[in-house]
Write a structure and sequence with these properties.
Elements (H helix, E strand, L loop, with lengths): L2 H26 L7 H25 L4 H16 L4 H18 L1
Length: 103
């Protein structure tokens, strides 16, 4: 198999797997979920996933650890106060930029 053919095959397989992951819950879980524990678990999955993806990137992606911590604290505080995601992300980016400029 040529390199270009295998790349397209990999992309097609991953597209199929991604589609199946999204389609199977829709086919299997047709009724409303009534279990309170399972519903609360599903409610927090997006937050846990977002945290697991962003916290390591925020702490390891900057030149200084302190600027990453400042940006993370800014985003966390604004999110805790109920501000929207765009404002929190913009303020965290501004805090990191200011901290990097000062250091």
């Amino acid at each position: 198999m040529h390199a270009e053919t295998s790349i397209w095959l990999y992309i097609a397989v991953m597209a199929g797997v991604t589609y199946a992951i999204r389609l199977l819950p829709l086919l299997i879980l047709r009724r409303e979920i009534r279990n309170v524990w399972f519903r609360s678990f599903l409610h927090y999955v997006p937050y846990a996933t977002l945290t697991a993806m962003t916290v390591p990137a925020a702490l390891m992606g900057d030149l200084h650890l302190l600027s990453g911590l400042l940006g993370l604290a800014t985003a966390g505080l604004l999110s805790y106060l109920g501000r929207n995601l765009l404002l929190s992300a913009a303020a965290a980016s501004l805090a990191v930029w200011l901290a990097e400029s000062l250091f």
